[in-house]
Amino acid sequence: MIEIQIDKDGKYQPLTLDVDQIHVIRVLWPDPILFRIRGVAYDIDRTFLAPAALESFEHLRSLRRANRAVQKILIVGHADPSGQAQHNLELSHKRATSMRAFLRRDETDWLDRFDSGDWAEPEEDALLLSLPKYGASYLSQSSSREDAIRAFQSEDGTLAVDGVLGPNTRKALIRSYFSTYGEGFSDLAIDATGVGEEYPLSSQHTEEVCTDDRRIEFFLHFGNLGPAASYPTKAYLQWTQQVAEVHDFIAMSEETVEVLLHDGKKEPIAGARFRVRLDGACIAEGDADDEGIARFRVPAQNPEHVTLDWSPPSRSEIYDYTCRVYLDPDTTDDPLQARLSNLGYRPSTDLNAAVSAFQHEFEIDHAPMPTGLVQGSPPQDTQARLDAIFSANRVSAVS
Fold it and tell me: Do residues 342 and 326 lie in contact, with contact meaning Cβ atoms separated by under 8 Å?
């Protein structure tokens, strides 16, 4: 028997054979590769992939480009242990088959899920959250769901701009989602099955572990030699034992940030217009509420800071105020500077002056003048007041 080893690109060493003889040739393909989307891949009891996991598709495409001989993907859905076992088995299968439809770019399958009631408003919102518009999503840049729908309809150019998510708008959303994230897989053989709660990554029943158990997996097979995916199946452990490599993508959830917007007199600006920038690109814009609170979402892999511009609602062309907003000041290299920056002072210019201005405004540690820093640190009362402000879990920005 002659063995031919095929590499991951489908290449092999040429053979010279005697045509007058019968030869038995065994073709050896590389072992499968397993790609897993873990973390917050799915919300509880949902079958639509969470927006936080969308970046995983670029990693999956990269794996495919690096392994050109892959010809089949076997998708396996999982569920966490909450709920009844039979329900979880069906849930995991729906996760796998909806993902198969996505990779095949099967619009009809997804439309049928909406028509049957299996998918509804949460899945529509996930589509609006997932589709990028100028570096952010339609929903994160809009003050309401209706405005987000109108923004998409207007951008599409073929839809009635009415703010209603009807069948035509839903179909256009699905098509846009497929074209944005689904390139590069439709030429492969793709199969799917679910295994329910049977194969958790950990035996500890904590919420963190449960999110990992609500995962989706992709077995990448070479040479179209992957197994047939029966449902239900007991072959899952056998599939995992054949794997040569495991690649994990950990999806992290988006975070909604609240910022209280003030004017130069430290009065909240009701209905303030605001814009959020990340690395120079606008990722959100909208209007603050009647209390001057702006709400916006930041990417799943939270950046250290964003730049926030805002102005009174009457100022339609320019922004009067700008502030660097640290999303979690206490995890930065200089928490004191990050906190003062969030409060609208200018610590990067003169940290001691910023501390003194804070002390003056809040009438602490100044007898008769603000003390500023003491041996490089804020005095006890100043630190206590900062702690009290930020324990409210709201970022506050003043001009």
Answer: yes
Distance CA 376, CA 383 (A): 13
Mean pLDDT: which of 16-20, 150-154, 207-211, 395-399 is highest? 150-154
Task: Give the amino acid at 380.
Answer: Q
Q: Which tops the pLDDT comparison, 294 or 96?
A: 96
DSSP letter, residue 21: S
Q: How many whole angstroms from its chain centre is CA 144?
A: 20
- % residues pLDDT > 90 (the chain): 40
Looking at residue 363, what is its pLDDT? 82
Which CATH code is given to the segment(s) 255-397?
2.60.40.10
Instruction: Give Dmax over CA atoms of the chain in angstroms.
Output: 107
Q: What is the pTM of this model?
A: 0.67
Distance CA 348, CA 332 (A): 14
Give the helix/strand (H/E) hosting 256.
Answer: strand 255-261
The residue type found at 173 is: L
State how far the Cα of 74 lies from the Cα of 97, in Å rounded to an integer: 11
33-251 shares its CATH topology with 255-397:
no
3-state secondary structure of 345: coil
d(CA 387, CA 392): 9
Instruction: Dig out the tokens for 141 from the structure.
Output: 């840049």
- Calculate mean pLDDT across residues 243-263: 84
Whether the per-residue pLDDT at 136 is higher than 60: the answer is no
Average pLDDT taken over every residue of the chain: 86
CA distance 285 to 319: 12
Given this model, what pLDDT does residue 133 score? 59
Residue 290: left (phi > 0), alpha (psi -120 to 50), or beta? alpha
Spatial distance between the Cα atoms of 147 and 154, rounded to a whole number of angstroms? 10
Residue 250 C-alpha from the chain's centroid: 10
Note whether 311 and 322 are within 8 A (CB): no
Class of the CATH domain delimited by 33-251: alpha beta
Distance CA(7)–CA(24), nearest Å, equals: 20
Asked whether the CA dihedral 228, 234, 239, 240 is positive or negative, the reply is positive
